[in-house]
Amino acid sequence: MASSDVSDKTRRQFLKSAVLSGVGLTAGRIRGLSAPVDSANRPLALVSRGESTYRICISQTASPSEKHAAEELQKFLQEISGARLPVVTDSDKPGGNLVLVGNSTLVEPFASKISFEKLGPEGFVLRTVGDRVLIVGGQQRGTLYGVYTLLEKFGCRWFTRDVSVIPKKSTLLVEPLDEIQKPAFEYREPYFTEACDKDWAARNKVNGSSMNLDESTGGGFIYYPFVHTFYQILPSEKYFGEHPEYYALVDGQRRSANAQLCLTNPDVLRLTINTVLGWMEQHPEASIYSVSQNDCEGWCECDNCRRVEQEEGGAHSGPLLRFVNAVAEEAAKQHPDKLIDTLAYWYSEPPPLHARPLPNVRIRLCPIGACEAHPYEDCKDDAYFMNHLRAWSKITNQLYIWHYVTNFSHYLLPFPDFDELAADIPMYRKNGVVGIFLEGAYAEGGGGENAELRSYLMARLLWNPSLKVDSIIDEFMAAYYGKAARPMRAYFDLLHRQVRPAPRGRGQHMWINTNPGASYLSQDFIAHSLKRFQEAEAAANDDATRMRVRKARLSIDYVRLVQAKAFEVRDGSYAPADLEGLKENFQSFMKDVRSFGITELHEGSKLSEDEERFNNRIKPYPVVTLENTLMRVDLAPELSGRVIRMIDKRTGHDLLRRPDPGERSYPNTGGLSVLVNSDYLGRTYEMTWEMEAQTEPTELRLTSAYTNGLKASRVIRLRKDEPVLYTETTLENRGDSALDVVLQSRCVAGPKNFEESSISFRRRDGKTTEHKLIEAGQEPRGAETYDGTEQPDGEWMLSEAAPGLALVNRFPKDQVSRCFARWTGKTDNSITMGIWSVKHSLAPGKSLKLEADYGIRRTIS
């Protein structure tokens, strides 16, 4: 909506909401900066009936951003009132009515009452003195922000790059001003494509590295490089061949991929210091340099790194922070004004016991496992993160946050996190956080769910967390959706009621990789959402608004499309219920997505990849059923020989988890399957199974050949009159050279009552283990590996795999070297139980076998 399209009624609504949302209120008074308002205590007529006696005055030596501030003030005052105020410099020695923009010789009589040191680069003062208006702040961005704040008082808003509200008033009065503002956070970055326009970013006072801010907008908080830099510091292709000791020792091997560096190796420290100093010389525009872990696990398990971890209370962050501090200490000697950044992320999230960040080190704490539906302090699933946040805030006053504000597996999926944002940005400030990066959908073309509104709201709260969120949302929707604002707000509230706690809502949880089958996206919710969108499209009175409504509706269309992909077993086939209709809807949907310039639906995956996956995978797969008196098993040989259902005939319960159709590998995921790997962490060899002629109704035989000379065969058999499925996999090397191989058999269950589920077994040393999966105060996910004397003694059990039923896995002890379990209770309950064979260097002509039983046991008589 162009500014000229805003009606008088809408302008009045904006002025009212400006007061409600706190525009013009002081973001924070600073002791010693306040000065009395001019004794006249009267409004100044900046413009009267379209004419002005005022001039805008800047210093002859004004910074580029101060010059731009004057230009922006001139531009928007003219757009509002029709009056064009001349811009002059202090060298002209102007008299009369002036708007003093930035520090200049004409500000000097008042400068003793302004502490520029306390204002910093972004703070500013708005003050009326006699007939003059002072907009004075830090040279970098402070004065520019002061100009935009004054314009906001007149009703100006810059909601998106294309949608702004510039009111029309022939008379502009400046009420008496004595206001000081500084940002709540030194670093403020909403990381959506829609937030990367430099003018939008400057006008909304965000200063992130992605915002293309140049000298006219005061630059930004520039990173180099941005994150996950270990392999940039020591590229494995350059160093690993001669120096594998530079890289993490993981599971007994030095790893050059999908792992980290050895952070106690002195040569790694020396090379890292040299690299970082080189970055500082080559990229002086940056203010912060990242020395941070790769985006994976694989921390170093060498004796020295483990020793440091133990000294630091068992925290993986111990070796990391000691290493980063050592780099920062050397960097400060040559570049005392530069900062070093690292992550408290994933395995390094808990803080160390003794190490403390140096003054030039910034820790970015990442709540990657948190529920994003609720304020963190109110959600049981976020208690673990709040403990980490409080612990870090006790040991540093330089804490940054890397917060997540989208669904990275499904950018378009409805993501009702506005209540959480409204509570947690102020919560971060209360806990001493000084910088926030809010990661959203950042692909070319943007298009993340509610990206425009979310970017605008975050920008406002990052500057002043005390603003009234509902008023900001109403203000945005009135401008962005016009006459369709009411039904769009109704949809917004309906969506948030799915996650708000009772009695305000249904209390569902949500995470950053929730799939479209999530319970908060019920059919009832979708039906009501479609009604709201139909009302919004009918209410929209121009093409631009209709397009915005249709773009927002893509979220619901996407959910319906993905849910329609759900495969069912029917008439010997595994396929979606309406395959032809699904194909047609998919093509139509992808056409709509492209019409909005969207290039990605998932992080790092182009639309063409989605189309390729759909065309290759979404088709019927033959199903073979094995059945005895107690158990029915369905297999899809073409899906990696996968067992897709394991049904207890006495109760009708399926003990295997039903995969969500939004999973990336769907439908070739979950169930009971076997894998061939090079080692316990190495690559997986692709398998294409072929079914032999079935001679018994309770048995199936499969074979698979590999291009590298490996040949596998598999037997899957129901034991007679027992609820037990026997599997046997044999791997033979028919090639010319030895190959490192290990077999893995795994089963994925989906317990309904996850909080009551546990893994139990007798260990090989005779002790017993019972591992409750969900613990109060902990993240509702986890992983365990059991090896040596701690692994199951030939049998382990998952209780409550289905109501009243346990899943029991038995295996020959001499064939298995370790067992592992991975589980999550995030929206869609899942637990994977896996066993590994002994690792072999399989010589030509030799074979390897792994047997496993999967049985059903009643736990309630």
Fold and architecture overview:
- With 861 residues, the protein is of the alpha+beta class.
- Among the domains are: 3-182, Chitobiase, domain 2 (2-Layer Sandwich), CATH 3.30.379.10; 223-341, no CATH class; 564-620, no CATH class; 623-858, Beta-galactosidase, Chain A, domain 5.
- The chain has 20 helices and 42 strands.
- A 9-stranded antiparallel β-sheet has the order 29-30-31-32-42-38-37-34-35, with no helix packed on it.
- Strand 29 (690-691) and strand 30 form a beta hairpin.
- Helix 2 (64-81) runs parallel beside helix 5 (142-153).
Task: Please summarize what this structure is.
With 861 residues, the chain is of the alpha+beta class. The strands form ten sheets. It has a nine-stranded antiparallel β-sheet, with no helix packed on it. The longest helix has 21 residues, at 543-563.
